[in-house]
Fold this sequence. Notes:
Elements: E1 6-12, H1 16-21, E2 36-41, E3 47-56, E4 59-65, H2 66-80, E5 86-89, E6 93-97, E7 106-107, E8 116-120, H3 131-137, H4 174-183, E9 188-196, E10 204-207, E11 210-219, E12 222-228, E13 236-238, E14 241-245
Antiparallel strand pairs: 1-4, 1-5, 2-3, 3-4, 6-8, 7-8, 9-12, 9-14, 10-11, 11-12, 13-14
Amino acid sequence: MTASSRRILSLSGADTRSFLQGLITNDIGRIDAELVYAAILTPQGKYMADFFLKADGDAVLLDADADQAAMLIQRLTMYKLRADVSIAETNLHLHRGTGPAPADALRDPRNADLGWRTYRDAPQEDDTTDWNALYVANLIPQSGVELTPDSFILEMGFEHLNGVDFRKGCYVGQEVTARMKHKTELRKGLAKVHVTGPAPTGTEITAEGKPAGTLLTRAGDEALAYLRFDRAKGAMLADGADVKRMT
């Protein structure tokens, strides 16, 4: 996923922050000090979209996957009802990197190894980072790959990615998320695996002939996988490639 595959929206109006606070998985109150990573869920607690939020004066910038931007505008418009909130697309472009952060940048809240993000009028042309390798190394899910409409964010590691706040109060899908946190042990989730042999993203992983998960983002001999933890304990296969769980 490249920086050009992002769309930057602007939310403005007197009710913007309170509106977002009732929808997103994280605490909008942190936005004055840092970039906030969050998601919006269905009422059943399943993933709809993830994004970054940045204070922009009295407005809020929302940095989303380009394939989700139209859906997010529609969904946010549906939820806002009579709230004083305006939603518009901008001409801003994401810039990111892992070296020294420029003065206008904020750190990526998901993991220190992911560096910084900022938003500018012109596209970025100097990014040579192997982002997939960083995502695999740090268990970072991507929208449309690991993060799908069937995902539960705790199975995708959102707690470790600073993407969910369990003290902020209610939001759409909060009850299911809180129940998964406090009352159940996760039986499935994102893990890093070692892969020996060719196997593309989306390949089913099996253990002793039984479905054990799905192979996802791959970087060299390492990959992310969505696994059934009770079956992912020994040797596994992905279309003939040998798979072994690392985390």
